[in-house]
Design goal:
This protein has 14 helices and 13 strands. By secondary structure, the protein is of the alpha/beta class. Strands 6-5-4-7-8 form a five-stranded mixed β-sheet, sandwiched between helices. A five-stranded mixed β-sheet has the order 11-10-9-12-13, sandwiched between helices. The chain binds zinc ion. Keywords: Kinase, Transferase.
């Protein structure tokens, strides 16, 4: 019988701490593992050797600050995870291994709003095709992360608002995909997954407190507080799209007037340019024209940035994040939108919060959510299952 505090249970706890640190980061040097876990360099060295010998981790030479170091990652063949991301007009699937390498990825256009069952049919087929293309058996799939473009009610697992996806009314996305794939499925909204994707793979690496802002048909924020997604008890934290900016502004789909969304979401913004640019304009095209110097598009993009900045200023005062990452199509506008966001933040946020904040574009573009879905599975996975041992292979760590 093992008692808590005994030598072997302490050893087991240390093994799990190291596995957890590596699993969340993708790859770490031994010095980084020591810093993250608080274990001594000698202990880390012994544990890494043991984990390498039993096939749980792989160790590859690297350099850190010009010095030779050893990069530690979970073994590439210990299992695979799948990310499925539903947008309003696309379906994207990625397959990754536990070393945070993306093995296969594909996106298809789809009218997700029209029919949930058709969307899930397509997802099921694409997952099967991509897993097969990796040459790794389906029995190696450890879990699936699922992203949906709307708030998820964490208790029921259904979409919090069917006004956003009318074709999904009464559907439980997690249950639906679990039944079809026969593996555990974790579900979250697109903004939270974008935040997780950028935190683990992109612009948020190394940061503990981050807000990911996504402007599309709605406006949402994924909030990372002390390294973890903050969802709130109802799962609706981060709905910054419905911060009131103007009491007498346009009526929002939520029933209020002058919400942030009515100044920034695609249909309101494109409406401003209808008279001058016609009704075929899209947000990517508006961004492209703005970058080419079109004055009307530049003006509108700047105004959107100023309004987003007002919402970010409120976020800043409440949560004091160290980084704000802008995702979605609008991020492609670069400084045209980021500059006005920063101006609003410095005008409306308290100086001490604004000074510590950096505002930057996402590094992952349209891949942020699907990579976040992979990261969701990796972050929620138990460490005990990984410690049962597998043969390791030598592959370079971390290549998204
Ligand atoms: Zn609203």
């Amino acid at each position: 019988m093992e008692t808590p505090g005994s030598q072997s249970s302490l050893h087991r706890a240390n093994l799990e701490r190291v596995v957890r640190a590596v699993r969340l980061a993708g790859s770490l040097t031994q010095a980084e593992i020591a810093r993250t876990t608080g274990l001594s360099a000698a202990t880390v060295s012994n544990i890494v050797r043991e984990l390498r010998d039993n096939g749980t981790v792989q160790v590859t030479p690297t350099s850190s600050g010009g010095r030779r170091a050893r990069s530690v990652a979970l073994s590439g063949d210990a299992g695979i995870v799948v990310g499925v991301d539903f947008g309003h007009s696309h379906l994207r699937v990625a397959v990754g291994n536990l070393a945070h390498q993306v093995l296969a990825e594909q996106s298809e256009p789809i009218d997700v709003d029209a029919s949930a069952s058709e969307g899930f049919d397509r997802a099921e087929q694409l997952v099967a095709r991509l897993v097969e293309s990796t040459g790794i058996g389906r029995d190696k799939v450890l879990g699936v992360g699922l992203g949906v473009p709307g708030p998820i009610d964490m208790e029921s697992g259904t979409l919090g608002s069917t006004a956003i996806l009318p074709g999904w009314s009464g559907i439980n996305p997690r249950q639906e995909l679990t039944d079809r794939l026969g593996v555990p499925v974790q579900v979250d909204n697109d903004a939270n997954l974008g935040a997780l994707g950028e935190l683990v793979w992109g612009s948020g690496r190394g940061v503990r407190d981050l807000a990911y802002i996504k402007v599309a048909s709605g406006v949402g924020a994924g909030l990372v507080v002390d390294g973890r997604i903050y969802r709130g008890p109802g799962g609706t934290a981060g709905e910054i799209g419905h911060i009131t900016l103007d009491e007498s502004g346009p009526v929002c789909r939520c029933g209020n007037r002058g919400c942030l969304e009515t100044f920034t979401a695609a249909r309101y913004v494109l409406e401003l340019l209808r008279g001058s640019h016609g009704d075929q304009l899209t947000v990517p095209r508006m961004v492209q024209l703005g970058r080419e110097g079109d004055p009307g598009c530049r003006r509108v993009i700047g105004d959107v940035g100023r309004h987003i900045g007002m919402g970010v200023a409120s976020l800043c005062n409440l949560l004091n994040p160290s980084r704000v990452v802008l995702g979605g199509d609008l991020a492609e506008a670069g400084e045209l939108v980021l500059g006005p966001i920063r101006e609003s933040v410095s005008r409306y946020a308290i100086p001490s919060a604004a000074q510590r904040l950096s505002v930057m574009p996402g590094a992952l573009g349209p891949r942020a959510e699907v990579l976040g879905a992979l990261a969701l599975v990796l972050s929620e996975m138990g460490d005990s299952t990984l410690l049962d041992g597998n043969a390791g292979v030598d592959t370079p760590a971390f290549s998204a």
